[in-house]
Specification:
Elements (H helix, E strand, L loop, with lengths): L49 E4 L2 E8 L2 E6 L2 H4 L15 E5 L5 H7 L1 H11 L3 E5 L3 H9 L5 E3 L2 H9 L4 E8 L10 E6 L15 E4 L5 H13 L8 E4 L3 H10 L4 E5 H7 L13 E6 L7 E5 L4 H13 L3 H6 L18 E3 L7 H10 L6
Parallel strand pairs: 4-5, 4-6, 9-10, 9-11
Antiparallel strand pairs: 1-2, 2-3, 6-13, 7-13, 7-14, 8-11, 8-12
Helix pairs in contact: 3-9, 4-5, 6-11
Length: 367
């Protein structure tokens, strides 16, 4: 269990600053036409380069320890330029995420996304998992994380505190899905004294993190609507959604909150240690919350920002990952820490609803 902390209290430690540039030689004269076809070998020096073979565009990719020419999907042919100036790109690219589990588990779940970006960008890519929401927010504000998967509230906080970011996409559960999720109010299944959110009054309440949308902001709005002032109750932060569920199951908290997938999928699937499907009950559900964004840092070379947006919208989804041979089936493919299919296009204004909840709750974290 974590004690309450001020959001943005510390900057997470990261490796070397991303200010050096990559020296990628493009030659000084007219480049000879590349003769290639799909499946042919290419060289390390040709990695990331494009050429056209008849009506087919191909790209030199690295997969299974081999450099080969691969057909470029028609969905990306018009969005990735044939020639990209990478001379001002950083030496490496860092992807981060607000914590939902421990660092080792998070790193494993983002392994496929990291590999995708490394192969598509042609530069080393690292994953950074902060110990709390404040760490990832401050890391992106400090230009130490280039692409971050946020909850809606933590994204709003990051923007409010100076992060030069915008959503590159919003997570959806399927290719035709609508972005969004819910906060659940929960209690021990055998706790007969709690059947609705109004029963949280006088109980020990577990929130998730000060910057959590479904674990703090929307629950605060729900409590206030039920006539309960959280400031006058016994509250604490669990540090993560699974931890909130575990705390209630152990009796550390009487009631608490977590986002829907934890209760609908992870607990029944045995993914929350020590908690069974019959241990916890849901007594309250929030309205639909704006979907979680993956935000790109804008104060990078425009060509890199454009490349990142393209990968997020056209490559970072289960359908594309299977088509490109990165996953065997969509059922076994993992893009981020939850079961999301991938990302679709969105804008910053999509999160105005979260900002409105900030205003209604008078949360000090919204400033």
């Amino acid at each position: 269990m974590y004690s309450t902390k001020k959001t943005l209290q510390r900057i997470a430690a990261l490796t070397a600053a991303l200010t050096a540039v990559v020296a990628i030689s493009s030659g000084s004269g007219v480049q000879a036409k590349i003769e290639a076809k799909v499946g042919d070998k290419c060289t390390k020096a040709q990695y990331g380069k494009y050429t056209k073979v008849g009506a087919v565009r191909v790209r030199c990719t690295y997969k299974n320890k081999k450099y080969t020419w691969t057909k470029v999907a028609t969905t990306t042919a018009t969005t990735i330029p044939v020639k990209v100036d990478k001379s001002q790109w950083p030496k490496k690219f860092v992807i981060g995420a607000v914590p939902s589990e421990n660092a080792a588990a998070m790193t494993l779940k983002y392994k496929g996304l990291v590999q995708l970006f490394q192969e598509e960008l042609g530069i080393p890519v690292e994953f950074y998992s902060a110990t709390d929401y404040a760490g990832i927010i401050e890391a992106q504000i400090a230009n130490k994380v280039d692409l971050a998967f946020y909850g809606p509230f933590s994204y709003v906080i990051a923007k409010l505190n100076g992060a030069k970011i915008e959503p590159a996409g919003v997570a959806v559960s399927s290719a035709t899905g609508v972005p969004g999720y819910r906060s659940y109010g929960i209690a021990k299944a055998n706790n007969t004294a709690v059947t609705k959110i109004a029963d949280f009054k006088g109980k020990r309440i577990c929130f998730v993190d000060p910057a959590s949308t479904s674990g703090t902001l929307y629950p605060t709005a729900g409590l206030l609507a039920a006539g309960i002032d959280p400031a006058k109750e016994s509250t604490q932060y669990a540090g993560g959604h699974p931890q909130s569920v575990q705390a209630i199951n152990k009796g550390t908290c009487d009631v608490g909150f977590a986002y829907d997938d934890i209760l609908d999928k992870d607990v029944p699937g045995g993914k929350v240690s020590g908690v069974g499907a019959s241990d916890i009950k849901v007594v309250w559900k929030s309205g639909l919350i704006a979907g979680s964004p993956i935000a790109v840092r804008l104060n990078m070379p425009q060509s890199l920002v454009d490349a990142v947006r393209n990968i997020v919208l056209n490559k970072a989804n289960k359908t594309a990952m299977v088509k490109d041979g990165r996953c065997t089936t969509e059922a076994t493919c993992q893009i981020i820490e939850d079961s999301s299919w991938g990302f679709i296009k969105t804008t910053d204004s999509y999160y105005d609803g979260v900002r409105a909840v900030c205003e209604s709750t008078k949360s000090t974290k919204c400033k």
